[in-house]
Specification:
Layout lengths: L1 H9 L17 H4 L6 H5 L8 E5 L5 H11 L6 E5 L14 H23 L6 H15 L4 H10 L5 H9 L8 H7 L4 H10 L6 H11 L8 E5 L11 H12 L2 H4 L4 E8 L3 H4 L9 E4 L4 H15 L11 E2 L6 H8 L4 H18 L6 E2 H19 L2 H10 L3 E3 H8 L4 H14 L2 E7 L8 E6 L2 H7 L5 H8 E3 L6 E3 L7 E3 L6 E3 L2
């Protein structure tokens, strides 16, 4: 109960940092922040379009997906989520168009049958009922309980009565399929006729088109398929693998442009440039999710308010420190633009405070500094190869030139220095941030900088977080971008985002 005691002492009614998974956040609507393109991605349900949203891991993709799911409870579109993939026993090379289309047909079939629980199937033509019956026999006859459970959970606007009906069938669904179909409106006499008549259901694309077309008679203007968690499959740990996994869908324009159907694909941003080589941005518009510092601060504040009955609006207000630092600014900056990292940092700090004093009415500076150090090491270990981190610790600079690398730090040749910096860039550890005149008469040299605040904090582990904040972090006065620089050794720098130059002197 120590952690629960601390939450109560700090003014919270519920744990604001209990989960990093947006699918498990019951109060998401209370602190959801719309990115600028959200309305464009949601689109017009009367004329649906497919879109792709790219974001880093922990960047908020699932929260955007979840928001559309919540909207489907009130807006008239059929909404299904494709984020569970039956890959047991399969290799990445086995994941083709047929794999995805088969899974989608099964989900859409369960969605349409569930809609019939409210509206009934009497409004469908005999041919449509026949076709629907045959599809159920093919796609649900051999499904196991786990597969059915995944299909049920994929349907976001399933009537409670329909969910109860599906859940009554605990054994193999094939044995009880006629009883299931009977519940959803099929008459025994009609099913016997359909069995006698047999018939063909066509290819998988035709089946999807048929099911999408049935959405309208059941009261839906269109169908949305939300694709998420591609990079969380057992086959997709690497960026290139995640792209290969979903490529059969991304490259299938007839599917993505099917009338009445809109795909909303929430994908890892790391393979985005590779995806551009075979996707059609002129036909399927893509967006990149990037949260501003102010948006993340607002997100954190709204999260705190929602879990404290409007009593706590910032981490700073419940932290005791004698140094002049906005703790919320510090945490948001260290998150590197990731909502998930904000939650992880705050959770770690509260955990530490509960160990120090669960009855405290504020977070101590000791708990704050200790856990920021610990979480920095944890997050960096997840983000970078140990060999690159070792090099950066030896470099111990926020910004640098290639000449400094080869001549002053590693004592290697210029080509070797260039190669080393290139490998750092490829890993995402550093980025080009400008140029600098190192010697009079020479051409300006490229300046590089550590890209991640939490990586830079780990590099300067001898500084506590508040000292690090004062010496290494500033915000561009023109555009607000976070500037990670060696401000303690040089006061003149430029912004890599808007190229504004300024001096603190």
């Amino acid at each position: 109960m120590r952690y629960a005691d601390l939450l109560k002492s700090l003014g919270f009614r519920r744990d604001p940092f209990a989960t990093t998974n947006a699918d498990e956040e019951e109060l998401l609507e209370a602190y959801f922040i719309e990115p600028p393109f959200f309305k464009a991605v949601y689109g017009d349900i009367a004329v649906p379009k497919s879109n792709i949203v790219y974001a880093p891991r922990g960047g908020g993709k699932t929260a955007l997906k979840r928001k559309i799911e919540l909207i489907s409870r009130t807006d008239p579109f059929l909404c299904v989520t494709y984020n569970s993939f039956p890959t047991s026993g399969l290799k990445l090379s086995d994941i083709d168009q047929r794999f995805h289309l088969t899974n989608l047909v099964r989900i859409l079939l369960v969605a349409i049958l569930s809609a019939a629980d409210t509206v009934g199937i009497e409004g469908l033509t005999t041919n449509d009922r026949h076709f629907l019956y045959l599809m159920a026999k093919v796609h649900l006859g051999g499904i196991d309980r786990a597969g059915l459970k995944d299909a049920i959970s994929a349907v976001q606007n399933m009537p409670d009565k329909a969910k109860e009906a599906w859940n009554r069938f605990t054994g193999p669904i094939g044995i009880a399929l006629n009883a299931v179909l009977s519940h959803f409106g099929f008459k025994a006499v009609e099913m016997s006729k359909f069995d006698a008549a047999t018939g063909e259901i066509g290819d998988l694309m035709s089946q999807i088109s048929f099911l999408v077309g049935l959405a309208r008679p059941f009261g839906f203007q269109s169908t949305y398929i939300l694709v998420d968690k591609i990079d969380e499959s057992s086959l997709t740990g690497k960026a290139s693998q995640s792209l290969a996994f979903i490529r059969p869908v991304l490259s299938d324009l007839p599917l993505l442009e099917m009338e009445g159907l809109g795909f909303k694909l929430f994908l890892w941003d790391l393979p985005q440039s590779e995806a551009r080589e075979f996707t059609r941005p002129d036909r399927v518009k893509s967006y990149t999710l990037h949260w501003s510092h102010s948006q993340l601060r607002q997100m954190l504040s709204k999260r705190l308010l929602a879990h404290s009955a409007e009593r706590v609006n910032s981490i700073t207000s419940i932290t005791t420190s004698e140094r002049d630092v906005d703790i919320d600014d510090l945490i948001v900056t260290l998150s590197g633009g990731s909502p998930r990292n904000i939650i992880r940092i705050c959770k770690a700090v509260l955990d530490e405070q509960s160990e120090i004093d669960a009855g405290a009415v504020s977070i101590s500076e000791r708990a704050l500094l200790r856990e920021i150090e610990a979480i920095a090491e944890e997050l960096v270990g997840e983000a970078l190869p140990s060999s690159i981190l070792k090099d950066l610790k030896k470099l111990k600079r926020a910004d640098f030139t290639v000449r400094h690398i080869y001549a002053d730090v590693f004592k290697i040749s210029q080509p070797s220095g260039l190669q080393k910096v290139q490998s750092w860039q490829d890993s995402g550890a550093v980025v080009k941030i400008g140029n600098r005149q190192e010697k009079r008469g020479n051409r300006p040299s490229n300046v590089y900088g550590v890209s991640s605040p939490i990586v830079l904090k780990n590099i300067f582990s001898d500084m506590d977080a508040l000292d690090f904040w004062h010496k290494k972090v500033r915000f561009c006065v023109t555009c607000g971008e976070v500037l990670l620089r060696d401000w303690d050794t040089s006061k003149l720098h430029s912004c890599h985002a808007c190229e504004s130059a300024f001096s603190e002197e």
